Amino acid sequence: MTVTWEDLGWERLAAGVGRCRLPGWDCTAGLVVGADAALAVDAGSSLGEGARLRVAAQELAGHRVTHLALTHPHFDHVLGASAFAGAEVFGAVGTAALLAGAGREALRADAVAEGLDAGLAEEAADALVAVRHEVCGEWTLDLGGGRQVLLANVGPGHTGHDLAVLVPGEVEVVFCGDLVEESGEPQAGPDAVPSQWPAALDRLLGLGGEDALYVPGHGAVVDAAFVRAQRDALAARFGVSR
Q1: What sign does the CA torsion over 89, 66, 57, 154 have?
Q2: Given strand 213-218, what is the order of strands in its sheet?
Q3: Which of 96, 104, 140, 176 has its CA 20 to 30 A from that of 153?
Q4: Is 215 helix (H, G, I), strand (E, B) or coil?
Q5: What is the dihedral of CA 82, 88, 94, 97, to 10 degrees?
């Protein structure tokens, strides 16, 4: 019997493209399936969560996850990364340094402060894999069978290192990370760059266009009108002239 996205609690967005909303922080994880490769988008907040994502993703893809894109270096999106053993890991320029050395301690501390069990946070931080491929502008991945995916460094905005994932097709899908949030007001922590966040959303809109599906880092899938409204709200909130 063929396993469907819905069978595993995932939301199918287009042919070979879907996402799930993880419990706890309502964080999105995505999957793009090619003929002989598969890309996971974000990895969850712990090794256990990452392992569950990997198992589900491999069942949906029919083969292992070969690539992992991290949309930004916050604990709820990256601490499960080492569960994707052997995957080629991508992030925006500067992500590698933040996931190594002292940056791991900052991730661990942030995770614990947000309610993750201290032992789970330490285990995941200690095991973090290296980001081997840093995206400066754009990077095209070929997943086989005519499936190509564009990784785009569209930040800074929510952080100094925001990576978007565009999946072309009859329905274009853009994984936005936390540049866009639907389930609450976008969170601007100490690593946010508010003065450039509205411009980052303009770049997202330029990538996907008017008819794309935009997948927030938290919350329900939205359209271009929602992203545009959030851009305007952020510009007003942070006093950014347009």
Answers
A1: positive
A2: 138-144, 147-153, 163-167, 173-181, 213-218
A3: 104
A4: strand
A5: 40
